[in-house]
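Milestone M4 deliverable, item 7.
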Amino acid sequence: MTHYRLNPAVLFCLGLAILGLVLAQWQWSRAQFKEQQIERATTNTSLGVGPGSRSALGGAGLGWLQDRSADSLDQKTFLLKGGQWVAASQIFLDNRALNGRAGVHVLTAVRFEDGSIGWVNRGWAPKLPGSQGPVALPFIQAAVHPPNQATLDEGIEVVAHQSLMRRVELSENDAVLRQGALWQNFDAKAAEDLLAKLLPKETLRIWPVIFWSTSASGEGLVQQPPRLAQDDVAKHYGYAFQWVLLTLVALFFAWKLGRRASTPEA
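Output delivered:
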């Protein structure tokens, strides 16, 4: 009779199998999320921007509603016109590549005429990799790419997105993840805390999406909102399938190694 025995090699294979399942589920959920975004982009009607309507977001066209969800806004287009930039709110999201070049996404909050606040991804700017040294210092201090109020007064066409394409975070230390105005990822809670310091007397009403500018601003920034295609969805399903295969292989070796390490009874 053969006994099955747990040993370090078996435990390692079981851990690898669990990791494979977790990553497969994550890739599957990413595929479904992108499918929903593509569906919204093709079925949702535009609000605030169109041949017969160019109403301003945060004003008479589409004012703040407490129960307005990110899903109801996602992939829809708007016109931002009027209001004021909260200039000191500048945030740079690091390690965002464009056409093979390293750079940052430039985010600035805008306070609309109805008092609500929205985060606007004004565009992409080049920046060499790294969060230390003279290259990073102007971004840490928010000393570059200030917003132009005249651009907002003229009107900016934007598209709403729930996601800012988060990058993997290799640390849980806030000092590493957010150095001054240079952030690895957009953190809604940290962004709200920043606005609370800048607008201490305001009751913050923040729109639950990021508005990506699609209008050329003349500020040296490149406007390129996310463009999703079915290829993006298929890619995630493919990754999920690969992780499932890894899980099966790991389980097979866990079974095999346990049997090989066993001792038959006399």
